[in-house]
Amino acid sequence: MYVSALSLTDFRSYTDVALELEAGVGVFVGPNGQGKTNLVEGFGYLATLASHRVAADAALVRLGASQAVLRADVVRDARTTRVEIEINPGRANRARLNRGPVPRAGDVRGVLRSVLFAPEDLALVTGDPAERRRFLDELLVARTPRLAAVRADYDRVLKQRNTLLKTAGLARRAGGADLRTLDVWDSHLASTGAELLTARVGLLSALRPLVDKAYDAVSRGGGPTALEYRSSLGPQVALVPDREVLAAALLAALAAVRPQELDRGVSLVGPHRDELVLSIGELTARGYASHGECWSLALALRLAAYELLRADGGEPVLVLDDVFAALDADRRARLAELIAPAEQVLITAAVAVDVPESLTGSRYDVMAGAVHRVR
Fold this sequence. Notes:
By secondary structure, the protein is of the alpha/beta class. 43% of the residues lie in helices and 23% in strands. It is globular, with a radius of gyration of 22 Å. The relative contact order is 0.17.
Protein backbone atom coordinates (compact mmCIF):
# COMPACT_ATOMS: atom_id res chain seq x y z
CA MET A 1 0.00 0.00 0.00
CA TYR A 2 1.16 3.52 -0.76
CA VAL A 3 -0.33 6.97 -1.29
CA SER A 4 0.13 8.46 -4.75
CA ALA A 5 -1.50 11.85 -4.04
CA LEU A 6 -2.30 13.91 -0.96
CA SER A 7 -4.17 17.21 -0.76
CA LEU A 8 -5.15 19.39 2.19
CA THR A 9 -7.56 22.34 2.01
CA ASP A 10 -7.90 24.74 4.96
CA PHE A 11 -6.16 22.22 7.20
CA ARG A 12 -3.96 23.71 9.92
CA SER A 13 -1.58 26.19 8.21
CA TYR A 14 -2.44 25.09 4.67
CA THR A 15 -4.91 27.00 2.54
CA ASP A 16 -4.44 24.52 -0.26
CA VAL A 17 -1.65 22.05 -0.92
CA ALA A 18 -1.53 19.13 -3.35
CA LEU A 19 1.32 16.61 -3.58
CA GLU A 20 2.17 13.82 -5.97
CA LEU A 21 3.86 11.01 -4.04
CA GLU A 22 5.62 7.79 -4.96
CA ALA A 23 6.28 4.44 -3.36
CA GLY A 24 9.55 4.24 -1.48
CA VAL A 25 11.06 6.98 0.68
CA GLY A 26 9.78 10.55 0.70
CA VAL A 27 11.63 13.13 2.81
CA PHE A 28 10.15 16.51 3.78
CA VAL A 29 12.79 18.99 4.89
CA GLY A 30 12.33 22.43 6.40
CA PRO A 31 12.87 24.48 9.55
CA ASN A 32 10.57 23.94 12.49
CA GLY A 33 7.25 25.74 12.32
CA GLN A 34 6.96 25.64 8.52
CA GLY A 35 4.25 22.97 8.22
CA LYS A 36 5.99 19.58 8.04
CA THR A 37 4.13 18.08 10.99
CA ASN A 38 0.85 19.50 9.69
CA LEU A 39 1.37 17.44 6.54
CA VAL A 40 1.86 14.16 8.36
CA GLU A 41 -0.94 15.03 10.79
CA GLY A 42 -3.32 15.34 7.85
CA PHE A 43 -2.01 12.10 6.45
CA GLY A 44 -2.58 10.38 9.78
CA TYR A 45 -6.08 11.80 10.09
CA LEU A 46 -7.04 10.18 6.79
CA ALA A 47 -5.95 6.85 8.24
CA THR A 48 -7.30 7.06 11.78
CA LEU A 49 -9.92 9.87 11.75
CA ALA A 50 -8.03 11.43 14.64
CA SER A 51 -5.05 13.68 15.27
CA HIS A 52 -2.00 12.50 17.18
CA ARG A 53 -1.58 16.04 18.55
CA VAL A 54 -5.01 17.30 19.69
CA ALA A 55 -8.24 15.71 20.86
CA ALA A 56 -10.72 18.14 19.27
CA ASP A 57 -11.16 18.63 15.53
CA ALA A 58 -11.72 22.41 15.79
CA ALA A 59 -7.97 23.07 16.03
CA LEU A 60 -7.41 21.29 12.71
CA VAL A 61 -9.38 23.78 10.63
CA ARG A 62 -7.42 26.79 9.40
CA LEU A 63 -8.25 29.99 11.25
CA GLY A 64 -11.07 31.78 9.44
CA ALA A 65 -12.26 28.72 7.51
CA SER A 66 -15.47 26.81 8.28
CA GLN A 67 -14.21 23.37 7.34
CA ALA A 68 -11.15 21.42 6.22
CA VAL A 69 -10.99 18.86 3.41
CA LEU A 70 -8.39 16.09 3.19
CA ARG A 71 -7.93 13.75 0.21
CA ALA A 72 -5.61 10.88 -0.62
CA ASP A 73 -5.29 8.42 -3.48
CA VAL A 74 -4.43 5.06 -1.94
CA VAL A 75 -2.86 2.40 -4.18
CA ARG A 76 -3.24 -1.20 -3.11
CA ASP A 77 -2.78 -4.25 -5.33
CA ALA A 78 -2.57 -1.96 -8.39
CA ARG A 79 -6.01 -0.45 -7.60
CA THR A 80 -6.43 3.20 -6.59
CA THR A 81 -9.04 4.33 -4.09
CA ARG A 82 -9.66 7.98 -3.33
CA VAL A 83 -10.58 8.70 0.27
CA GLU A 84 -11.85 12.13 1.25
CA ILE A 85 -12.77 13.53 4.66
CA GLU A 86 -14.53 16.79 5.41
CA ILE A 87 -13.87 18.08 8.92
CA ASN A 88 -16.79 20.15 10.21
CA PRO A 89 -16.27 21.49 13.75
CA GLY A 90 -19.50 21.43 15.70
CA ARG A 91 -21.17 19.22 13.09
CA ALA A 92 -20.78 15.68 11.86
CA ASN A 93 -17.76 15.07 9.65
CA ARG A 94 -18.46 13.68 6.20
CA ALA A 95 -16.49 11.29 4.01
CA ARG A 96 -16.38 10.02 0.45
CA LEU A 97 -14.89 7.01 -1.29
CA ASN A 98 -14.08 7.39 -4.97
CA ARG A 99 -16.07 10.65 -4.90
CA GLY A 100 -19.20 8.90 -3.62
CA PRO A 101 -20.57 9.76 -0.14
CA VAL A 102 -20.61 7.09 2.56
CA PRO A 103 -23.22 6.95 5.37
CA ARG A 104 -20.73 7.66 8.17
CA ALA A 105 -17.25 9.14 8.23
CA GLY A 106 -16.06 6.05 10.09
CA ASP A 107 -16.86 3.91 7.05
CA VAL A 108 -13.59 5.02 5.41
CA ARG A 109 -11.49 3.84 8.34
CA GLY A 110 -9.03 1.19 7.16
CA VAL A 111 -8.81 2.29 3.51
CA LEU A 112 -5.49 3.94 4.34
CA ARG A 113 -3.41 2.24 7.01
CA SER A 114 -0.42 3.97 8.50
CA VAL A 115 1.90 3.81 11.48
CA LEU A 116 3.17 7.15 12.74
CA PHE A 117 6.20 7.61 14.95
CA ALA A 118 6.64 11.10 16.41
CA PRO A 119 8.61 12.72 19.26
CA GLU A 120 5.44 12.57 21.38
CA ASP A 121 5.74 8.78 21.34
CA LEU A 122 8.37 8.88 24.06
CA ALA A 123 5.33 9.24 26.35
CA LEU A 124 4.38 5.67 25.44
CA VAL A 125 7.18 4.63 27.77
CA THR A 126 7.62 7.55 30.17
CA GLY A 127 4.07 8.92 30.32
CA ASP A 128 0.90 8.08 32.21
CA PRO A 129 -0.99 4.78 31.75
CA ALA A 130 -3.53 6.55 29.52
CA GLU A 131 -0.83 6.87 26.82
CA ARG A 132 -0.30 3.12 26.70
CA ARG A 133 -4.01 2.35 26.81
CA ARG A 134 -4.50 4.67 23.85
CA PHE A 135 -1.70 2.93 21.96
CA LEU A 136 -3.41 -0.44 22.42
CA ASP A 137 -6.85 0.81 21.50
CA GLU A 138 -5.70 2.69 18.40
CA LEU A 139 -3.86 -0.39 17.18
CA LEU A 140 -6.96 -2.49 17.84
CA VAL A 141 -9.05 -0.15 15.69
CA ALA A 142 -6.41 -0.10 12.95
CA ARG A 143 -6.53 -3.91 12.79
CA THR A 144 -10.30 -4.24 13.25
CA PRO A 145 -12.15 -1.00 12.40
CA ARG A 146 -15.45 -2.20 13.94
CA LEU A 147 -13.78 -1.95 17.37
CA ALA A 148 -13.93 1.83 17.03
CA ALA A 149 -17.65 1.53 17.83
CA VAL A 150 -16.92 -0.69 20.86
CA ARG A 151 -14.39 1.81 22.16
CA ALA A 152 -16.82 4.71 21.63
CA ASP A 153 -19.64 2.79 23.32
CA TYR A 154 -17.45 2.10 26.34
CA ASP A 155 -16.46 5.76 26.65
CA ARG A 156 -20.11 6.81 26.38
CA VAL A 157 -21.27 4.30 29.01
CA LEU A 158 -18.42 5.28 31.33
CA LYS A 159 -19.33 8.97 31.07
CA GLN A 160 -23.02 8.29 31.73
CA ARG A 161 -22.23 6.00 34.64
CA ASN A 162 -19.88 8.51 36.26
CA THR A 163 -22.57 11.19 36.01
CA LEU A 164 -25.08 8.86 37.65
CA LEU A 165 -22.62 7.93 40.41
CA LYS A 166 -22.22 11.60 41.31
CA THR A 167 -25.97 12.25 41.51
CA ALA A 168 -26.70 8.95 43.27
CA GLY A 169 -23.94 9.59 45.78
CA LEU A 170 -25.40 12.99 46.63
CA ALA A 171 -28.88 11.51 46.95
CA ARG A 172 -27.64 8.74 49.23
CA ARG A 173 -25.98 11.21 51.53
CA ALA A 174 -29.20 13.22 51.59
CA GLY A 175 -31.15 10.24 52.85
CA GLY A 176 -32.13 8.04 49.93
CA ALA A 177 -31.27 6.99 46.38
CA ASP A 178 -32.78 4.68 43.78
CA LEU A 179 -29.88 2.62 42.45
CA ARG A 180 -31.82 0.50 39.96
CA THR A 181 -30.69 2.68 37.06
CA LEU A 182 -27.11 2.18 38.17
CA ASP A 183 -27.61 -1.58 37.87
CA VAL A 184 -28.48 -1.10 34.19
CA TRP A 185 -25.34 0.95 33.55
CA ASP A 186 -23.26 -1.65 35.41
CA SER A 187 -24.49 -4.23 32.92
CA HIS A 188 -23.63 -1.99 29.95
CA LEU A 189 -20.17 -1.24 31.33
CA ALA A 190 -19.49 -4.93 31.95
CA SER A 191 -20.59 -5.90 28.44
CA THR A 192 -18.64 -3.30 26.48
CA GLY A 193 -15.70 -3.44 28.89
CA ALA A 194 -15.38 -7.21 28.53
CA GLU A 195 -15.25 -6.91 24.74
CA LEU A 196 -12.55 -4.26 24.94
CA LEU A 197 -10.57 -6.27 27.51
CA THR A 198 -10.75 -9.44 25.42
CA ALA A 199 -9.46 -7.58 22.39
CA ARG A 200 -6.60 -5.97 24.32
CA VAL A 201 -5.43 -9.26 25.80
CA GLY A 202 -5.52 -10.93 22.39
CA LEU A 203 -3.59 -8.04 20.87
CA LEU A 204 -0.86 -8.28 23.49
CA SER A 205 -0.36 -11.98 22.76
CA ALA A 206 0.42 -11.11 19.15
CA LEU A 207 2.43 -7.99 20.00
CA ARG A 208 4.87 -9.30 22.61
CA PRO A 209 7.25 -11.27 20.36
CA LEU A 210 7.25 -8.49 17.76
CA VAL A 211 8.19 -5.83 20.34
CA ASP A 212 10.97 -8.03 21.69
CA LYS A 213 12.32 -8.61 18.18
CA ALA A 214 12.13 -4.94 17.23
CA TYR A 215 13.80 -3.80 20.45
CA ASP A 216 16.61 -6.26 19.93
CA ALA A 217 17.10 -4.93 16.40
CA VAL A 218 17.06 -1.26 17.44
CA SER A 219 19.24 -1.69 20.53
CA ARG A 220 21.46 -4.50 19.23
CA GLY A 221 20.90 -6.92 22.09
CA GLY A 222 19.77 -4.44 24.72
CA GLY A 223 17.94 -7.07 26.71
CA PRO A 224 14.58 -8.85 26.63
CA THR A 225 11.39 -6.83 26.88
CA ALA A 226 8.14 -7.67 28.64
CA LEU A 227 4.60 -6.33 28.21
CA GLU A 228 2.35 -7.03 31.18
CA TYR A 229 -1.34 -6.16 31.23
CA ARG A 230 -2.40 -5.16 34.74
CA SER A 231 -6.16 -5.05 35.05
CA SER A 232 -8.31 -3.60 37.79
CA LEU A 233 -9.85 -7.09 37.83
CA GLY A 234 -6.59 -8.75 38.79
CA PRO A 235 -4.25 -11.17 37.00
CA GLN A 236 -7.04 -13.51 35.83
CA VAL A 237 -7.65 -11.22 32.86
CA ALA A 238 -4.44 -12.36 31.18
CA LEU A 239 -5.12 -15.98 32.03
CA VAL A 240 -8.79 -16.13 30.97
CA PRO A 241 -9.32 -13.89 27.94
CA ASP A 242 -12.93 -15.00 27.60
CA ARG A 243 -15.56 -12.30 27.01
CA GLU A 244 -18.35 -13.88 29.07
CA VAL A 245 -16.05 -14.70 31.98
CA LEU A 246 -14.66 -11.16 31.97
CA ALA A 247 -18.14 -9.62 31.83
CA ALA A 248 -19.17 -11.62 34.89
CA ALA A 249 -15.94 -10.63 36.66
CA LEU A 250 -16.55 -6.96 35.84
CA LEU A 251 -20.09 -7.11 37.22
CA ALA A 252 -18.88 -8.73 40.44
CA ALA A 253 -16.07 -6.19 40.82
CA LEU A 254 -18.45 -3.27 40.25
CA ALA A 255 -20.78 -4.60 42.92
CA ALA A 256 -17.88 -4.95 45.36
CA VAL A 257 -16.66 -1.36 44.95
CA ARG A 258 -20.05 0.37 44.63
CA PRO A 259 -19.89 2.02 48.09
CA GLN A 260 -16.51 3.58 47.28
CA GLU A 261 -17.71 4.65 43.84
CA LEU A 262 -20.76 6.38 45.30
CA ASP A 263 -18.51 8.20 47.76
CA ARG A 264 -16.08 9.32 45.07
CA GLY A 265 -18.46 9.73 42.12
CA VAL A 266 -16.23 7.84 39.70
CA SER A 267 -15.97 4.34 38.21
CA LEU A 268 -13.14 2.45 39.90
CA VAL A 269 -13.16 -0.76 37.84
CA GLY A 270 -12.85 -1.33 34.10
CA PRO A 271 -10.49 -1.03 31.13
CA HIS A 272 -10.12 2.72 31.74
CA ARG A 273 -8.24 1.90 34.97
CA ASP A 274 -5.88 -0.68 33.48
CA GLU A 275 -2.18 -0.38 32.81
CA LEU A 276 0.26 -1.80 30.30
CA VAL A 277 3.57 -2.23 32.12
CA LEU A 278 6.67 -2.18 29.91
CA SER A 279 9.89 -3.73 31.16
CA ILE A 280 13.44 -4.14 29.93
CA GLY A 281 15.15 -7.05 31.58
CA GLU A 282 13.87 -7.25 35.16
CA LEU A 283 13.11 -3.54 35.59
CA THR A 284 10.10 -1.51 34.50
CA ALA A 285 11.04 0.94 31.78
CA ARG A 286 9.19 3.86 33.32
CA GLY A 287 11.42 5.22 36.02
CA TYR A 288 14.40 2.91 35.44
CA ALA A 289 15.29 2.89 31.74
CA SER A 290 17.77 5.39 30.32
CA HIS A 291 16.66 8.00 27.80
CA GLY A 292 18.14 5.96 24.97
CA GLU A 293 16.44 2.78 26.17
CA CYS A 294 13.10 4.60 26.37
CA TRP A 295 13.48 5.83 22.80
CA SER A 296 14.40 2.34 21.63
CA LEU A 297 11.38 0.82 23.35
CA ALA A 298 9.03 3.45 21.94
CA LEU A 299 10.43 2.73 18.48
CA ALA A 300 10.00 -0.99 19.08
CA LEU A 301 6.32 -0.51 19.94
CA ARG A 302 5.66 1.34 16.69
CA LEU A 303 7.73 -1.06 14.59
CA ALA A 304 5.88 -3.99 16.16
CA ALA A 305 2.56 -2.32 15.31
CA TYR A 306 3.78 -1.92 11.73
CA GLU A 307 4.75 -5.60 11.48
CA LEU A 308 1.43 -6.69 12.98
CA LEU A 309 -0.60 -4.64 10.50
CA ARG A 310 1.63 -5.85 7.70
CA ALA A 311 0.99 -9.47 8.68
CA ASP A 312 -2.75 -8.81 8.60
CA GLY A 313 -2.47 -7.90 4.90
CA GLY A 314 -2.09 -4.53 3.24
CA GLU A 315 1.28 -3.11 4.27
CA PRO A 316 0.75 0.21 6.08
CA VAL A 317 2.53 3.43 5.20
CA LEU A 318 5.27 4.24 7.72
CA VAL A 319 5.53 7.88 8.81
CA LEU A 320 8.39 9.28 10.91
CA ASP A 321 7.94 12.86 12.08
CA ASP A 322 11.21 14.51 13.12
CA VAL A 323 12.43 11.29 14.71
CA PHE A 324 16.02 11.02 13.51
CA ALA A 325 17.06 14.26 15.22
CA ALA A 326 16.33 12.66 18.60
CA LEU A 327 18.48 9.56 17.95
CA ASP A 328 22.21 9.02 18.17
CA ALA A 329 24.16 7.91 15.11
CA ASP A 330 23.93 4.19 15.90
CA ARG A 331 20.18 4.22 16.43
CA ARG A 332 19.70 6.29 13.26
CA ALA A 333 21.56 3.69 11.24
CA ARG A 334 19.66 0.78 12.79
CA LEU A 335 16.30 2.43 12.27
CA ALA A 336 17.14 3.27 8.66
CA GLU A 337 18.06 -0.35 8.04
CA LEU A 338 14.78 -1.55 9.52
CA ILE A 339 12.46 0.79 7.62
CA ALA A 340 14.17 0.85 4.23
CA PRO A 341 12.25 -2.19 2.85
CA ALA A 342 8.81 -0.64 3.58
CA GLU A 343 6.63 0.01 0.54
CA GLN A 344 6.29 3.69 1.47
CA VAL A 345 8.07 5.70 4.15
CA LEU A 346 7.42 9.41 4.74
CA ILE A 347 10.00 11.26 6.83
CA THR A 348 10.17 14.83 8.12
CA ALA A 349 13.38 16.52 9.24
CA ALA A 350 14.49 20.04 10.08
CA VAL A 351 17.75 19.52 8.18
CA ALA A 352 18.56 16.96 5.51
CA VAL A 353 21.67 15.67 7.28
CA ASP A 354 19.49 14.24 10.06
CA VAL A 355 18.23 11.58 7.64
CA PRO A 356 20.68 8.73 6.93
CA GLU A 357 22.03 8.73 3.39
CA SER A 358 20.84 5.15 2.91
CA LEU A 359 17.23 6.42 2.84
CA THR A 360 17.28 7.79 -0.66
CA GLY A 361 14.12 8.76 -2.50
CA SER A 362 11.94 11.78 -3.22
CA ARG A 363 12.83 15.04 -1.49
CA TYR A 364 10.47 17.93 -0.72
CA ASP A 365 11.30 21.32 0.76
CA VAL A 366 8.72 22.80 3.13
CA MET A 367 8.79 26.53 3.80
CA ALA A 368 6.09 28.94 5.00
CA GLY A 369 3.27 26.52 4.19
CA ALA A 370 4.52 25.78 0.67
CA VAL A 371 5.83 22.39 -0.43
CA HIS A 372 8.18 22.03 -3.40
CA ARG A 373 9.59 18.83 -4.79
CA VAL A 374 13.37 18.97 -5.18
CA ARG A 375 13.95 15.53 -6.68
